From TrEMBL:
It comes from the Eukaryota. Belongs to the CTAG/PCC1 family. Pfam families: Pcc1 (PF09341). GO terms for biological process: tRNA threonylcarbamoyladenosine metabolic process. This is Transcription factor Pcc1. InterPro entries: CTAG/Pcc1. One of its GO terms (cellular component) is EKC/KEOPS complex.
Length: 105
C-alpha cells in the first residue's frame, strides 16, 4: 500500500455551497465512495469561505503517485459532485432558493 510520502502529485479542490447544511450533506454523500487505487488518497473537510463564519465549502485534498492517476481520480470525483448537486437542485428547496432571483415585489 502506498504511503503519503510516495504520493508526490497533489491537488486541493474547494467546492462552495449556499450554506453549511448543504455542504455537510454533500460531504456525507461524496465520502461514501472509496478510491479504487491505493496510489490515490483524498481527505475531506468542510471549511468556511473568506468572509463567512459558516463551513459552507467542501474541501477535498488529493494526493496521487502520478499526474495521470490524479487526473483520473479528480475527473471521476467531479462527475460525482455534479450528480450530488443535480440531486440537490431537484430535491432540496434551499438550493433552488439560493439560485433563483426573488420575484416578490
Amino acid at each position: 500500500m502506498a504511503t503519503n510520502n510516495s504520493l508526490p502529485c497533489a491537488l486541493t479542490l474547494d467546492i462552495p455551497f449556499p450554506n453549511a447544511r448543504l455542504a455537510s450533506v454533500a460531504l456525507r454523500a461524496l465520502q461514501v465512495d472509496k478510491e479504487l487505487s491505493s496510489s490515490v488518497t483524498r481527505h475531506f473537510a468542510t471549511v468556511s469561505s473568506p468572509g463567512s463564519e459558516q463551513d459552507s465549502v467542501v474541501r477535498v485534498e488529493y494526493k496521487a503517485a502520478t499526474n495521470r492517476m490524479l487526473r483520473v481520480a479528480v475527473n471521476s470525483f467531479l462527475d460525482s459532485v455534479a450528480l450530488v448537486i443535480e440531486v440537490m437542485q431537484e430535491l432540496d428547496v434551499d438550493v433552488l432558493d439560493s439560485q433563483t432571483p426573488s420575484t416578490k415585489g
